[in-house]
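Q: Please design a sequence for this.
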C-alpha cells in the first residue's frame, strides 16, 4: 500500500496546492481591485469556508452526491446517464473538496498583501504598455510573493495532515497509513517510520517555501489604497456568479444541507452530549494551558528581550504547528511509553490517558497561543502600569484594574483560537483518546464512516458554528480597521 499512498499524497499536494493557489490569488485580486454587484457581501463570505473542517465539507459532498440522494436521482430522472454523474470519491473530487476548504488561507493573506501594497506599481506597468495579465504576473505576483507562499505552505501542510476528508473520499495517503498502522495493525514501529517520512515532507515544504520567499520582493512605489475598477456587462455578471458559486459550494450550500438534515423535533436528543462534554474538557484544557504558557513566555520575553535561550525556545515551540496531528500523536505516545518503562508504576497509564491527548494538542497548537498572547501583551504599555503604581495602587490592584481589562480581549481571542483548533483536530484525537472518550470530531467521523449521514448532521453543525467564531472575530476586526 505504501507506493500507492505515496503517489496519492504527492498528487493531492500538487492538485490541492495548485487549485487553492489559483482560487485564492484570483479571488483576492478580484475583490481588492474590482467593483461588481455583491462585492461587499461576497468579500467576507469568501473567507467563511475556514469555519468548516475539511472532513465536514467532505461528508456533506459525499452525502449530497450519493446514488440515492435527490441530486443524483434528479440527474437520472431527466435522462442523463448515471455514468457521467460527477464522482466525488475520486482524486479530482478530493482535490476540489480540499481546495474549497483550504483556499481561504491564500485568499486572506493575498488580500491583506494587496491592500497594503497599493496599486502604483501595477498602474505604472500598465502605463508603460504591459497588458493586464502581464503586468499582474511581472509586478503583482513578485511583490506579494511572501503572502501567497505563506498561504500555500499552510494549504500543503493541512493537506498532508488531513485524515477525515481523504478517508471519507476513498483516498489512501501517508496519514491514513500511519493511523491504520496504529489502530488496525497495532504497530507503533511502522507508524513511527511512516510518521518520520511525513516529517521529511514537512521539512521539504518548509525549506522550499523559505528558499523561494528569501528572494527579494519588488516593493510597491507607494502604499496608497488601490482604486477599484468597476466591471460592467458580462464581466460583472461573471465576477458575481463565480464568487457566489465558490461561496455557495464552500460554505452556504453545506450549511443549508446540514440545517435540513438536523432532526429539529429531537435536536436536543440528537446531540451526543458525552462527546460535547469530552470536547469541552479536552479543548478547554488545551486552550487554558496554551494561553497561560503563551502569556508567561511573552512576559519573560518582554522582560529579557535579548535572551537567546528564550528566543530559541519560542521558535522550537512554534514548530509544532507545522507537524501533522498523526505524527505528533506517534511522537507523544512513543515518548510517554518510554517514560512508563523507565519510571515503572509511578507513570502507569501515562501514555493512554487524557494527559497524552492534551499534551499532543498543546504541542501542536502552542504556536497559536504564543502568537495571540504576545499580541495581547503588546497592547499593555508599561506606562499604564507605572502610572497606576504612582497613583498608589498595589500589585494586585494594578493587575485587576489596569492590566486585566487591557489584556482580556486578546487573551479571550487566544483562548477561542486554540479551543477551536483543538476541537477540530481529528487524527491526534482518534489515536490518543482514552478508551470510551469521544469528541464531536470523533462522532462526525464514526457516523459518516458508517454512512449515517443524517445522524452526523447535528454534531457537524455544532462544529461549524463553533468553528465560525474565529472567522467572525477576524472579519469583525477587519471591518473595524476599515472604519
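A: Design:
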Amino acid at each position: 500500500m505504501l507506493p500507492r499512498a505515496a503517489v496519492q499524497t504527492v498528487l493531492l499536494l500538487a492538485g490541492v496546492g495548485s487549485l487553492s493557489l489559483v482560487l485564492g490569488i484570483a479571488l483576492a485580486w478580484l475583490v481588492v481591485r474590482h467593483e461588481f454587484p455583491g462585492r461587499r457581501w461576497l468579500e467576507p463570505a469568501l473567507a467563511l469556508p475556514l469555519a468548516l473542517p475539511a472532513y465536514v465539507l467532505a461528508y456533506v459532498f459525499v452525502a449530497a452526491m450519493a446514488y440515492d440522494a435527490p441530486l443524483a436521482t434528479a440527474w437520472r430522472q431527466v435522462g442523463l446517464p448515471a455514468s457521467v454523474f460527477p464522482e466525488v470519491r475520486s482524486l479530482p473530487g478530493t482535490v476540489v473538496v480540499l481546495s474549497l476548504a483550504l483556499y481561504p488561507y491564500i485568499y486572506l493573506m493575498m488580500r491583506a498583501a494587496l491592500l497594503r501594497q497599493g496599486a502604483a506599481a501595477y498602474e505604472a506597468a500598465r502605463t508603460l504598455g504591459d497588458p493586464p495579465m502581464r503586468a499582474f504576473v511581472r509586478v503583482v505576483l513578485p511583490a506579494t510573493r511572501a503572502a501567497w507562499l505563506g498561504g500555500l505552505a499552510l494549504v500543503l501542510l493541512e493537506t498532508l495532515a488531513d485524515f477525515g476528508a481523504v478517508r471519507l473520499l476513498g483516498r489512501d495517503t501517508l496519514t491514513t497509513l500511519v493511523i491504520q498502522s496504529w489502530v488496525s495493525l497495532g504497530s507503533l514501529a511502522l507508524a513511527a517510520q511512516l510518521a518520520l517520512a511525513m516529517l521529511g515532507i514537512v521539512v521539504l515544504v518548509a525549506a522550499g517555501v523559505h528558499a523561494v520567499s528569501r528572494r527579494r520582493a519588488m516593493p510597491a512605489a507607494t502604499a496608497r489604497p488601490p482604486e477599484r475598477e468597476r466591471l460592467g456587462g458580462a464581466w460583472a455578471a461573471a465576477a458575481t456568479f463565480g464568487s457566489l458559486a465558490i461561496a455557495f459550494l464552500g460554505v452556504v450550500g453545506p450549511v443549508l444541507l446540514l440545517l435540513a438534515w438536523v432532526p429539529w423535533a429531537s435536536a436536543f436528543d440528537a446531540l451526543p452530549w458525552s462527546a460535547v462534554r469530552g470536547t469541552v474538557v479536552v479543548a478547554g484544557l488545551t486552550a487554558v494551558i496554551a494561553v497561560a504558557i503563551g502569556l508567561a513566555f511573552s512576559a519573560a520575553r518582554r522582560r529579557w528581550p535579548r535572551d537567546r535561550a528564550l528566543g530559541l525556545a519560542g521558535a522550537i515551540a512554534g514548530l509544532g504547528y507545522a507537524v501533522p496531528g498523526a505524527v505528533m500523536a506517534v511522537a507523544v505516545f512513543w515518548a510517554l511509553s518510554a517514560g512508563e518503562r523507565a519510571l515503572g508504576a509511578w507513570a502507569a497509564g501515562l501514555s493512554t490517558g487524557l494527559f497524552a491527548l492534551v499534551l499532543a494538542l498543546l504541542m501542536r497548537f502552542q504556536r497559536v497561543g504564543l502568537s495571540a498572547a504576545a499580541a495581547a501583551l503588546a497592547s499593555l504599555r508599561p506606562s499604564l502600569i507605572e502610572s497606576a503604581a504612582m497613583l498608589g495602587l498595589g500589585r494586585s490592584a494594578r493587575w485587576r484594574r489596569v492590566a486585566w481589562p487591557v489584556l482580556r480581549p486578546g487573551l479571550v481571542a487566544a483562548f477561542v483560537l486554540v479551543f477551536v483548533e483543538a476541537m477540530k483536530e481529528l487524527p491526534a484525537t482518534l489515536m490518543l483518546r482514552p478508551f470510551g472518550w469521544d469528541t464531536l470530531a470523533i462522532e462526525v467521523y464514526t457516523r459518516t464512516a458508517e454512512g449515517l449521514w443524517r445522524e452526523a448532521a447535528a454534531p457537524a453543525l455544532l462544529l461549524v458554528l463553533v468553528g465560525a467564531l474565529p472567522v467572525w472575530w477576524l472579519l469583525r476586526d477587519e471591518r473595524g480597521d476599515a472604519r
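Q: Thanks. Anything notable?
A: The mean pLDDT is 83. DSSP finds 22 helices and two strands in the chain.
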